[in-house]
């Protein structure tokens, strides 16, 4: 290998290490919304911003992200296994906190003008969820507080939801129930700490 080629390999490796090292770690207590926001004040700012812009309830947006990625910024669907052994293709190109697909993210960028939005940024992910749920509200008539039906539409897409593809899919209904249950738990937790959070992060 020539010296110049080796140098480029080293640079690429260093950039990869830096990128991985800079990824935001998931919160230490993901089951407690108050603890999440105490640890990550900027996430509270992002959730409030999405609420003001899209009417996205703070607990609902955070519950969707927990359901989709467990708060991992670089989350992707698990690879399928060829012959049950060899790692193969991923079932979709979903990526990031909100597990947005390439197509959905492209639609979001075009609709909102957010050209530089990234799926591994929490504020962009929450904004995406707010936009998506707002679209579901307008097109499908789902209340913005109805976490169960909003998640069904989020998972199935507007057309799939309208056609009722989820009705015979117990797994999708289970995911939606879990998202709704977590939304309710997060809402109860937030009631106990929002005043304190607003005092602590008043400059947001």
Could you describe the 3D structure shown?
It contains eight helices and two strands; from the N terminus they run ααααββαααα. It is an all-alpha fold.
Mean pLDDT: 86
Helical region count?
8
**DSSP, total strands:** 2
- Percent helix, as a range, is 55-70%
End-to-end Cα distance, whole Å, is 53 Å
Structural class, please? mainly alpha
Strand content: under 5%
Give a quick rundown of the structure.
This protein is mainly α. It has eight helices and two strands.
Task: Offer a few descriptive terms.
single chain, 204 residues, mainly alpha, disordered N terminus
List the helices and strands and how they pair.
Layout (H helix, E strand, L loop, with lengths): L2 H20 L10 H7 L1 H14 L3 H12 L11 E2 L3 E2 L14 H11 L9 H19 L6 H17 L6 H31 L4
Antiparallel strand pairs: 1-2
Helix pairs in contact: 2-3, 2-8, 3-6, 4-6, 4-8, 6-7, 7-8
